[in-house]
Amino acid sequence: GDPGGARAGGGTACDPPSGGSPALRGLGAQGGAGDREGRVWGKTRGMFVLGLPYAILHGGYLGLFLIIFAAVVCCYTGKILIACLYEENEDGEIVRVRDSYVDIANACCAPRFPTLGGRIVNVAQIIELVMTCILYVVVSGNLMYNSFPNLPVSQKSWSIIATAVLLPCAFLKNLKAVSKFSLLCTLAHFVINILVIAYCLSRARDWAWDKVKFYIDVKKFPISIGIIVFSYTSQIFLPSLEGNMQNPKEFHCMMNWTHIAACILKGLFALVAYLTWADETKEVITDNLPSTIRAVVNIFLVAKALLSYPLPFFAAVEVLERSLFQDGNRAFFPNCYGGDGRLKSWGLTLRCALVVFTLLMAIYVPHFALLMGLTGSLTGAGLCFLLPSLFHLKLLWRKLLWHHVFFDVAIFVIGGICSVSGFIHSLEGLIEAFRTNAED
Amino acid sequence: MESRINAALQVGSGDCCCSWRLFCCAVQLAGARRGQLGAVGFGGLRVLSSCSSPSCTLWYPPPEAGCRGSCSGSYVWRLRTDIPLSRGAEMKGKCSANESELEISWLEQAYTLKLFFLKEGHNTSRGQEAFWRLSRIQFTYDTAERTYFKDAVNPGKHTASSHRLSALVTPAGKSYECQAQQTISLISSDQQKPVQLLLSEVRVQPFDIAADFVFSEEHKCPVDQREQLEETLPLILGLILGLVIVITLCIYHIHHKLTANQVQIPRDRSQYKHMG
């Protein structure tokens, strides 16, 4: 062909779209599967909070509003879940009759299917917790691999090394040790946040206040919804948390304050980070940082991923032991613990097997981030929005005021929409990712 | 390869930095699906920032460099063609003790690839060692040939040669093997245009051949060696991890059995509140 400079074309399907306003940026080119997977990767790699500025990039003020709204909704569903644990007895007092999420589910399906509800909730919990564990192994492997690209160590090798470090989790016996790890994890998270915010504040003169948009990016915003909504989910742990409180009456107060604090911190973090980089904001905000700070932040991110593993692992172990390994005629296997309360050897073997299982899934399952989006939109949305409102309506129907009923139904519907759209979106992503792999 | 391109250029000055958008269709954008195109701007080649068919966008200067005044733009298409080495190629060559030459030609001498090998001795820390290497490449192509070139500007034979080349370095007495792709750059006699030679799945031995069609022991290229290491490392680590788990379980089991006879305060777990 003869190269030449010209203004050519016209009248064909290749005419450029007219107008260059930012509102139309959403139309036009959309990335292929690699981009989409990259976006979902960003979501999981940053472990939710670090992806919030990206959500603001595509959502503008609506994203900020959604952060606040999601906090309110999750606080409300947490409270109604705990309200399901209590019933009014003959004396008119409110007494705690149920102990766990499984008990609530069983009570709902009580007359005809006494154990069906519990089994569904068990399965959902186990899936959610095990997927979270696998995610942390994948994330730490990926972070280490990206931090040291020149070493001949592949991501698989880093995942194996991470699992070797996490092997002592098999010895966890009670919540105290786990809570120490969670505390360290929170500290690591604070350090990351402080580093990012300090850097952003140092560039406060360049903040682009006029860049926060009112209109949303229709094609890219649904992912942001997922990032925002699922950063508040904690309903799996609430029943036992409330049961372990010394003063359960303070539960409502605790929920309110923790959600307000989380909401304010996340909103400020997302806003400040977005204002610093505006259009350049990447899916994981640490990618925007200069390389020295990014290296330090990466180390803390790896530490955070490893320290976050014990909590879902321990919860999964507890759920499994409770449902499959109790004495009595309901369970399939004998107890994991001996008469003196110590863990039996084969109980330890099963825990190690679970750790190895998370490693194998982390290594051999392709496109794990998309798969997690798929299961998360079912189990996560179910356990956080659909089931609490359903159980609340079913168990306390007679005592609910009209606005409670309205809220519950609204949350159920909105949760259902989020769940279905997330499921379809992830399924599309998975299919396209497999098709791209097959073509390559 | 399409010889006609339907393209339009839109120059915008959004938010203080200039952006060009090129809209094109029916052309395989160079490279992979999300290709790389270079655009020349203000002296130098800039790689396009984002390219997802059918349009490619370039911001110049890049936003962090600060804002400039007015914008103007034009584009030049540089087409690239891929010429594969066909299976029915003819081969000729010369082998001697220190110099070898391999000549491969296909499509009735329209394309000819000449590889020159050289064997030398070096003084290394371990004494006198001999190595052989690829010292020169000469690629002759005919742009009047219809299969890979359409409507060429300068139809005729041109030669692309290498410039100070030292590749495929191998110890003497061994053959060179490389499964990974290697790129060697050549400069053409036709207006200094760049030509790239892509080699993959190579096994070659120009000196010290023991018998006909018998390769000596292979020497792998560094990329292959690294990949081999990368692939064996997970297995080794996995075995070590498995061993550690088994040893830990055995120690725990033995410890459990030994201390079971000691008097233990029975710690009943019935009061323990489960999670979940």
TrEMBL record, chain A:
InterPro entries: AA_transpt_TM (IPR013057)
Topology of the protein relative to the lipid bilayer: Multi-pass membrane protein
Record keyword Repressor present: no
Reaction(s) catalysed by this chain's protein: 4-aminobutanoate(out) + n H(+)(in) = 4-aminobutanoate(in) + n H(+)(out); glycine(out) + n H(+)(in) = glycine(in) + n H(+)(out); beta-alanine(out) + n H(+)(in) = beta-alanine(in) + n H(+)(out)
Residue span, Amino acid transporter transmembrane domain: 45-426
Transmembrane segments: 55-76, 126-145, 181-201, 221-241, 253-275, 295-320, 348-365, 371-393, 405-424
Keyword Transmembrane set for record: yes
GO-annotated biological processes: gamma-aminobutyric acid import; neurotransmitter transport
Keywords: Cell projection, Cytoplasmic vesicle, Membrane, Neurotransmitter transport, Synapse, Transmembrane, Transmembrane helix, Transport
Subcellular location: Cytoplasmic vesicle membrane; Presynapse
Gene Ontology cellular component terms for the protein in this record: cytoplasmic vesicle membrane; inhibitory synapse; presynapse; vacuolar membrane
A GO term, aspect molecular function: gamma-aminobutyric acid:proton antiporter activity
Main location: membrane
Function: Antiporter that exchanges vesicular protons for cytosolic 4-aminobutanoate or to a lesser extend glycine, thus allowing their secretion from nerve terminals. The transport is equally dependent on the chemical and electrical components of the proton gradient. May also transport beta-alanine. Acidification of GABAergic synaptic vesicles is a prerequisite for 4-aminobutanoate uptake.
Family to which this protein belongs: Belongs to the amino acid/polyamine transporter 2 family.
Full protein name: Vesicular inhibitory amino acid transporter
Organism: Athene cunicularia
From TrEMBL, chain B:
The keyword Transmembrane helix is annotated on this UniProt entry: yes
GO CC terms: dendrite; early endosome membrane; endoplasmic reticulum-Golgi intermediate compartment membrane; growth cone membrane; late endosome membrane; lysosomal membrane; recycling endosome; synaptic vesicle membrane
Domain Lysosome-associated membrane glycoprotein 2-like luminal: 90-209
Keywords, comma-separated and alphabetical: Cell membrane, Cell projection, Cytoplasmic vesicle, Endosome, Glycoprotein, Membrane, Signal, Synapse, Transmembrane, Transmembrane helix
Transmembrane domains' residue ranges: 233-254
InterPro entries xrefs: Lamp2-like_luminal, Lysosome-assoc_membr_glycop
Pfam families: Lamp2-like_luminal
Domain of life the protein comes from: Eukaryota
Gene Ontology terms describing biological process: establishment of protein localization to organelle
Subcellular localization, as worded in the UniProt entry: Cell projection, Dendrite; Cell projection, Growth cone membrane; Cytoplasmic vesicle, Secretory vesicle, Synaptic vesicle membrane; Early endosome membrane
Keyword Cell membrane: yes
Membrane topology: Single-pass type I membrane protein
Described purpose of this protein according to its UniProt entry: Plays a role in short-term synaptic plasticity in a subset of GABAergic neurons in the brain.
Family in the record: Belongs to the LAMP family.
Protein name stated in the entry: Lysosome-associated membrane glycoprotein 5
